[in-house]
């Protein structure tokens, strides 16, 4: 994204929704296509666009301040939309977020995971949706054995440059071992799909735990249903205080 464009609203939509976008904003400007994601610039307000989309029975969510995501009706298309978007912004990601906010959330997730499975020293931990690798420092400090996984090749490259050992979802499927715990920071609300949860649960040891946050409390029901479907139970650790700053925290343990 060009610096001069930073204050304009950016609409992110699946390539199958081009007619929808042209209908709600005939003057929209297509600025990029990445995989299955189209990115547009619009001069309309978020409120106006949300109303126009509502008329067409379509939902949208605003994330990262200036990005409005038009949610496809198909969950697979939703996953593809976010995958393309994060591939597009990978090199700029840490300039679009507040890294200190993400690091705080990671610290909360590590504390929550420690409450469930104990001291992380020497344990095998997966950061699912590791992005640019911000969890590397905190988990190294905890002396955990960390593997990061992200769908975006661009994100993986940034995380690798930081020093994180990262793999793709396909490589996770073929991973020979299991993990004692999984953290997932700012991922659960981005349409965590059935296949991803199936892989996470298959690579989690019995008694291992998954912890993550649902930003803006999005996706709580779907994420919970998926983890239950693949053999994990919801856990509410005694003494853990939820923090609305990052949305609802969810914890699951594999029986």
* Total beta-strand segments: 12
Distance between the termini: 45 Å
CATH architecture of the largest domain: 3-Layer(aba) Sandwich
Radius of gyration: 18 Å
* Fourth-level CATH superfamily of the largest domain: Vaccinia Virus protein VP39
| Physical arrangement of strands within the biggest beta sheet | 8-7-6-9-10-12-11
Count helical runs: 10
Describe the structure.
- This protein is an alpha/beta fold and 255 residues long.
- It has two domains: 3-96, no CATH class; 99-254, Rossmann fold.
- It contains ten helices and twelve strands.
- It has helices spanning 18-24, 46-55, 75-89, 93-96, 99-117, 136-141, 153-162, 169-173, 194-202, 220-229; strands at residues 9-14, 29-34, 37-42, 60-63, 67-70, 124-128, 145-149, 166-167, 179-184, 204-214, 232-234, 248-254.
- The strands form two sheets. It has a seven-stranded mixed β-sheet, with helices on both faces.
- The chain is globular.
- 43% of the residues are buried.
């Amino acid at each position: 994204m060009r610096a001069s464009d930073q204050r304009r609203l950016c609409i992110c939509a699946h390539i199958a929704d081009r007619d929808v976008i042209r209908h709600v904003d005939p003057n929209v400007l297509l600025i990029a296509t990445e995989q299955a994601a189209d990115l547009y610039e619009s001069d309309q307000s978020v409120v106006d666009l949300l109303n126009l989309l509502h008329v067409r029975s379509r939902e949208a969510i605003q994330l990262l301040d200036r990005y409005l995501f038009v949610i496809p009706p198909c969950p697979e298309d939703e996953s593809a939309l976010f995958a393309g978007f994060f591939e597009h912004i990978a090199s700029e990601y840490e300039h679009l977020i507040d890294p200190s906010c993400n690091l705080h959330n990671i610290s909360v997730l590590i504390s929550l995971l420690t409450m469930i499975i104990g001291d992380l020293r020497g344990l095998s931990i997966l950061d699912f949706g590791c992005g640019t690798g911000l969890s590397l420092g905190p988990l190294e400090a905890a002396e955990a054995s960390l593997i990061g996984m992200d769908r975006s090749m661009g994100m993986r490259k940034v995380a690798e440059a930081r020093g994180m050992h990262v793999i793709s979802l396909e490589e996770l499927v073929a991973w020979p071992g299991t993990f004692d715990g999984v953290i997932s920071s700012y991922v659960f609300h981005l349409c965590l799909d059935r296949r991803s949860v199936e892989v996470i649960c298959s690579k989690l040891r019995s008694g291992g735990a998954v912890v993550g946050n649902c930003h803006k409390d999005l996706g709580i029901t779907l994420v919970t249903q998926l983890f239950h479907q693949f053999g994990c139970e919801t856990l509410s650790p005694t003494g853990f205080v939820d923090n609305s700053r990052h949305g609802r925290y969810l914890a699951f343990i594999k029986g």
